[in-house]
Amino acid sequence: MLPLAGCISVSPPDKPIEINLNVTIQQEVLVRLQRDVEQLIQQNPDAFPQQPQQPQQR
User: Fold this and answer.
1) pLDDT for 25-38, tens place per residue?
2) What span, in angstroms and rounded, lies between the C-alpha atoms of 30 and 42?
3) What are the CA-CA distances from residue 14 to residues 8, 9, 11 (Å)?
4) pTM
5) CA 51, CA 37: separation in Å to the nearest integer?
6) CA 26: distance to chain centroid?
7) Pseudo-torsion of CA 47, 54, 28, 45, nearest 10°?
């Protein structure tokens, strides 16, 4: 058998590792806002008159 030759070296990177955790939470905010608006409309039906919805034609 031949002996294995070689060397493995591990060294830290020159720059710090950056992990970007900017996450969009827009969907959650919109859902909460939509629920609040629906509740507001139900509590004040005279302030927000509803028009019958027309079926969408394709």
Assistant:
1) 666 667 778 888 88
2) 18
3) 18, 15, 9
4) 0.36
5) 16
6) 6
7) 20
Q: What are phi and psi of 6, to 5 degrees?
A: 145, 170
* Cα distance from N-terminal residue to C-terminal residue, the chain: 75
Contact 38, 31 (CB under 8 A): no
Q: What is the rounded distance in angstroms from the CA atom of residue 14 to the CA atom of residue 46? A: 65
Q: How far apart are CA 50 and CA 37, in angstroms?
A: 13
pLDDT bin (cut points 50, 70, 90) of residue 1 is low
> What CA–CA distance (Å, rounded) separates 36 from 3?
72
Per-residue pLDDT band for 4 (boundaries 50, 70, 90) equals low
